[in-house]
Backbone:
């Protein structure tokens, strides 16, 4: 039985494809420096917009993009929109005096309803 075993190649460990005729897309390396002074490189497509900050794959720290001279690039300040709370949105629709009046009406209604429930019980 052992002399009649099938011979073949190891499936899954070797690829039958070759790199002949394959053209890789143009790429560029960007260098980043983390806060602790370590530098690391990230490869991007040549036409990609390179971000100014990137997380280091080894340390997890944020790195800042270095220019061709090895100097840190100036970070663009992006206007961040301040999140609005429910109270802020409410004040956009009503004045504080109107809100106090509505609160008083609601409290009067609830107190009257509670007083009726006590009488009926």
Residues:
């Amino acid at each position: 039985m052992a002399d009649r075993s099938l011979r073949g190649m190891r499936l899954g460990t070797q690829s039958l494809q070759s790199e002949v005729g394959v053209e890789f897309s143009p790429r560029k390396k960007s260098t980043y420096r983390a806060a602790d002074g370590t530098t690391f490189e990230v490869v991007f497509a040549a036409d990609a917009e390179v971000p100014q900050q990137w997380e280091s794959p080894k340390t997890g720290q944020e790195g800042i993009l270095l220019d061709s001279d090895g100097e840190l690039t100036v970070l663009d300040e992006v206007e961040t929109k301040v999140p609005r709370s429910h109270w802020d949105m409410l004040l956009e629709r009503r004045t504080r005096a109107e809100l106090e009046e509505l609160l008083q009406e609601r409290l009067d209604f609830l107190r009257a309803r509670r007083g009726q429930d006590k009488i009926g019980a």
